[in-house]
User: Which sequence fits this backbone?
């Protein structure tokens, strides 16, 4: 019977809790509820010292708070609880079972500052070791697949090309156009001060094809595809499907990782080129609104943009795609087992993909500067 049922069955549910001591007998009465029991808690526990019997015959209502009081009062002398009605005895028994259940393990004390720094360093080394191991396993499996192309699942490759490439085209065109419009408008303000508005097309064009186009396309790929890879593989890891593949003798890297890496490497140049074209179209529309005809804008772009700049941007976008897909797959395969594992894996994939892309873009910038490209 529930506590609510106990209250409905007893007409004296609002009676004040009371107790009295007679020799080795401690008698409780009234309503031992959360509202009433705290008023007599300390005095009742003092009176319970030395008591051998606890009488509950006069208790009209008992909830978990009152039952806890009764059990604490009976605990020091292991007193016998008697006289309880059936509803009161049922609540008392449930409280006794709950109190006798194993308690949760207490949280360990926080580590000192030096200990926290050491724990952070050890965790970082473990993540680095796992990342190096994943990179080596992927490279070895890629070399093995080159010798046996049939091990690559081309159906999965086509599916990932559709998900990462074709379905990202509308978003890429939208962002590219907006970036071109924004760059053109913002560049026109200082250029107008010097009468150099004619140089807006080469300024925006070089910025797009060398840096912004590949970088923004990488952000799109990381937000859409990298997180999707991590969530999909993370779900498979949580559901132990990856372990089942290993038990069946199927290598998860060859089946799950390589098609995604190849798809990302193939779609990134296409997304980058689409980003560049849509950005240039947006810039051309702004220039037309400022009074510059389209043939003049095209002439300026032909004069300043080079094939080397375009190939440099498209080339590094391939590396961006491989890194983003690799980080997403690694985050999914190394996901934990808890309810937050998939979400944490997707977050790690997006953050890691964007940060790695920016760092890699900085390295390419230094390399191109040294090569005078």
Assistant:
């Amino acid at each position: 019977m529930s506590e609510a049922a106990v209250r409905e069955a007893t007409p004296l549910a609002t009676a004040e809790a009371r107790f009295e001591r007679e020799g080795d007998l401690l008698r409780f009465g009234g309503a031992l509820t959360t509202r009433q029991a705290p008023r007599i808690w300390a005095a009742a526990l003092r009176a319970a010292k030395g008591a051998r019997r606890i009488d509950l015959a006069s208790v009209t209502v008992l909830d978990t708070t009152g039952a806890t009081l009764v059990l604490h009062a009976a605990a020091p002398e292991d007193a016998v609880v008697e006289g309880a009605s059936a509803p009161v005895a049922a609540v008392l028994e449930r409280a006794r079972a709950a109190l006798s259940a194993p308690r949760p393990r207490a949280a360990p004390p926080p580590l000192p500052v030096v200990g926290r720094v050491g724990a952070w360093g050890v965790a970082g080394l473990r993540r680095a070791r796992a990342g190096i191991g994943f990179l080596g396993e992927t490279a070895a499996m890629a070399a093995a697949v080159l010798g046996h192309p049939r091990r690559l699942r081309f159906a999965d490759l086509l599916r990932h090309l559709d998900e990462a490439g074709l379905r990202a085209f509308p978003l890429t065109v939208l962002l590219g156009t907006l970036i071109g419009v924004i760059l053109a408008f913002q560049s026109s303000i200082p250029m107008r001060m010097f009468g150099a508005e004619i140089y807006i097309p080469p300024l925006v064009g070089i910025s797009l094809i060398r840096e912004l186009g590949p970088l923004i396309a990488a952000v799109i790929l990381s937000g859409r595809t990298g997180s999707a890879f991590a969530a999909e593989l993370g779900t498979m890891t949580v559901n132990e499907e990856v372990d089942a593949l290993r038990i069946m003798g199927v290598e998860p890297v060859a089946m799950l990782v390589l098609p995604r890496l190849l798809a990302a490497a193939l779609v990134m140049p296409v997304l980058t080129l689409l980003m560049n074209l849509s950005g240039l179209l947006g810039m051309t529309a702004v220039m037309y609104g400022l009074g510059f005809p389209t043939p003049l804008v095209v002439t300026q772009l032909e004069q300043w943009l080079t094939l080397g700049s375009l190939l440099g941007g498209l080339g590094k976008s391939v590396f961006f795609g491989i890194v983003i897909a690799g980080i997403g797959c690694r985050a999914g395969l190394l996901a934990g087992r808890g309810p937050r594992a998939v979400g944490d894996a997707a977050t790690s994939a997006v953050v890691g993909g964007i940060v790695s892309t920016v760092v890699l873009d900085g390295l390419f910038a230094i390399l191109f500067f040294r090569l005078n490209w």
About this structure: Residues 1-13 have pLDDT under 50 and may be disordered.
